[in-house]
Sequence to fold (457 residues):
Amino acid sequence: MPQCLEKLKRIVTVEPIIFFFMTSTFIMLPAYQHLVMDKVCQELYEDPSICADSGHRQNKEVESRSSYMLLLYTAMTSLISILPAMMLGSWSDRAGRRSVMMLPFILSLLSGGVLLAVVLVQSLSVYWCLLGAAFIGLTGGHVSIFLSSFSYVADITVESSSSRTLRMAIAESMVFVGGMVGFLLGGFLEQEFGLVAAFGAYMACHVFAILYILLWLEDPKPSYSTLNLFSTENGGQESGASILKYARLSFRAVLKRRPGQDRLKLHLLILCTFLNNMVAVGDNSVLLLYLMYEPREFTTATFGVFNSARMFLLGAALLGLFPLLMRCLKEMTLAKLSAVFRAASYVLLAFSTNTWMVCLVAVVGMPGGITQAVIRSLSSAIVGPDEQGAMFSFSASVEATCILISAIIFNGLYPLTLPTFPGMPFIIMATFSIIVLILMQWISEMPTTQPRLMLQD
Fold:
């Protein structure tokens, strides 16, 4: 039995952590957006009974003000999380991955408590939600979960490129499996029991994740090198500026000279990560507002079902379709095809006018998650074993920055295009996906300098 347990611990590692975090995130996302729309409506009309009518919540003034409020929330999360995201990966190279995984879950519990208070106390302004954003940002939020989790996967899969890519794909699929469960559960809880139940489930997911990390997960053996160890001669002086030291290590891991064109490849892969996250953040920011607006007029429950189906298909593509296709196609080919399908799905979404067209978007975009899984695998293969956390930390800080930029673009653009062409933000998302396709083609044409880096088609 102990041997079976040890074997199971090597198979099941960070996947439940990503699952719990993403489930909680996608429970909270529509609930938070709904909370903002309700609060904005109440502040506009000063009569809670008026806002019980969905027609008042969906007029242009409420939609516009809610969009700008969501922009403030995203900006708060992004700005505060940049520094933590920059230093935590390098710190995890030295202190272990579990510590970094724990921090976002602990402060997210406090964030959930703030949002729960805003729901229960009618007199609290919608701006109190920004305090919840601050708690999430203090530990980097989802970017800290990703950098620690994918660094962990890189630590335990050093034997081959294909093994690492498949493990990265399985971990990446938990984003979508968690999204499926989160949207389905969140929509049901909100529809049947209200926002209190939704935010309660959000907090419960974080409790489960903390218990899993404490009771199940074991740190891989840390790697030490001159990159992540403080010099002994300056040890006393360096301790007072450790935060800056860890941030500098992240920059060093990305900017250092590497054989051939590996440094340029790494920079292009990080740029692809930036663009992919721009699209993901923009999608999450405006999709609910877009689908609830006429002529689509989705309810919260319908939105939850649609996103659950969409996330299920994305996760199924990574768990089932991707390993199957890797037997006959190379990973870079699959990554480029994934970008094409993702762009096509957003073009279709921009012109969707009814429910069946929106549902078709989920089918067309099914392979859309493959690109990012390949990008993470290739990025980790370029850097050394002692640079995994530092590299993912830099990448995570770029993701945190893109949260703000994406929110400014999409939450700022959506109210402006609402009277003319509401689908314009999704056309821009499709354009970003095409740029990712071009960059991936450029990377695939570069010569390979390391045997484990299989970039050519």
